[in-house]
């Protein structure tokens, strides 16, 4: 029997008892290692199919984690190692204190503030204490075993392989990790929307030393700043997802299309795999790098995705300070001393830096939430940040619960049992034809009644505008209460979560749960969850128009989901391009005045806009011109930009009708035309000629469009006019999956990892799926054993510890 057939047989039977090291992807292969099983330790079988997708088989959770950690290291060792430098608080030591982290694990703007925070987490043994909390409030034994195995697998790959990625080849900061490091990464992801958002303000907080008061920010300005800070609209990250009930599909079974929008570089990328423990677990999907469980995926019966939710995962407590000591605060008139934590960080080329952090019963003292929202610590007032996810390590258990689910009811049970998701919604469909949505988040238990009763003047401005509560920390009766079904105090229980089940469709594009199904609006949730009867983003409006029409048409298949993903309709273009083209044609002499007062001949733009196909395909002519115009036009206040204002009675179709006489509209067109001409770009140039990425010297065109255009297939490119337009993608569509069922044991699944499996330019899987994405193609999921065995690219390897 030929060797390939023997390997396939071994893979299918699960009896792969020897290693074929040559079967590893080139980035992982090292002919000097891995030819013989070890005398013990952890091990797993990895079957690689097309595009370097690993199918990991193991006998238990520790071994599965081992195979996962090994395979992730093979593809992403440098990105992972960089993240572990962050988690150890050592960025300043290796990269200098003033450089910026990649933003994947916090919002820290400099290495030094990142290090001070994470070093403080490590010194205070925060994660170790959380690991001692028993399930369900703490992690399960299975997740702990996965994380232990993941660390061992990552370390084994480091010990047995040579790094070829130039990003970290021979770097002294690439080191073995511990299970605690892996769990700390889960902690960092959990607090991204809370403490992670305030790291600069936490590490800079110091008591006032003089008598001069630091000026605060007026409440009205603070409300606007908080709204900008916490809004999910116009953010680089986000997502779309839709699930259809069986009544909308061709065969009565459910359908799900997941389209998360995440960074294309750095540590918040997804990585694709299938993870199997025979008789226990069998799941495929995308995992956030460094995660031991599948984040978004499917199994034989269920498919799920996530979207970034509108719930505000933190709140502030305004402290009344002792006039004699600004490190003492009063609660019900009684003094409480802040806890002082000294943290030291090694710095490259200089002396270690030691700073003090200050903690209260509510959380750390914070002096800002981003540059736009200062929170000055004065002689009389300070602010403490409450983040309930700082005691939540349960997110991996939620993912594991989803992976083992057999129905949307099981998805809801996993959410109720684990209560672990910090900042996302869940959308799911199953093979029995059910659809499901839930905004089940770990949120501070801020009821509207509590906010009304206990908000400070600052909070009375920020809570209605953004959902950020600022409570009076001097009153114990303003403490967050507890729901009886919550697994930890101070959070909402699952009975309070906005949930929609078994409507013809459920959809979310990063707005609140209100219009999950526009025919049955969801109301009655607290402001901290999001808004009701307020304008929706252009992407939400376009998505609802499209998916509601699909549900009404019915007879949907996975192919319809695939078509929708690449439809690339620009809702903003449908609303505004025709009016703009007519206004352009009516301009005297074909000239418009730009924002700098210069008259620009825009006459050539009129016909381009009129003939644009209102899509953002790589071949769309006029899409780039409208995009550059629209980015400027959206700076015009909505009340001026549109003739028909928003109406809560018609939230999907309003506002509408471009007000071409508004100041700024024609000047935005003039500026866009002048910009493209200055860059040597034709006004009718195909979008793909000037929107793409370069991989190993080869330019790959990329379709899709920016948030404000309302594109489902979101692309957030980086503008570089001197080099020909959009030369890179910073964020956008990432791990995409279209999943359905046909009555067999194998799901009907199509997937795509837009930026490909590996960040190593020497890997064959550095850009192969990116090329597929450019051509609007998909990968057919090989979930069942028979399909894995038939892969022409099948490679099998048994990985193990050397002991």
Structure description:
With 803 residues, the chain is α+β, with helices and mostly antiparallel strands. The protein is built from 22 helices and 32 strands. Strand 13 and strand 14 (363-364) form a beta hairpin. The longest helix is centred in the first third of the chain and has 27 residues, at 61-87. It is globular, with a radius of gyration of 27 Å.
SSE map:
Blueprint: H1 3-13, E1 43-49, E2 53-57, H2 61-87, H3 91-95, H4 111-123, H5 126-131, H6 141-160, H7 179-190, H8 199-204, H9 219-230, E3 238-244, E4 255-263, E5 270-277, E6 281-288, E7 296-298, E8 302-308, E9 315-322, E10 325-331, E11 334-337, E12 339-345, E13 353-360, E14 363-364, E15 381-386, H10 395-404, H11 408-418, E16 424-430, E17 435-438, H12 448-454, H13 457-466, E18 470-472, E19 499-501, E20 505-508, H14 538-553, H15 558-565, H16 571-585, E21 591-593, E22 599-601, H17 603-611, H18 623-633, H19 638-641, E23 642-644, E24 656-658, H20 665-678, E25 692-695, E26 698-701, E27 715-720, E28 725-733, E29 735-740, E30 748-753, H21 768-774, E31 779-780, H22 785-789, E32 795-800
Helix pairs in contact: 2-6, 6-7, 9-13, 10-11, 16-17, 18-20
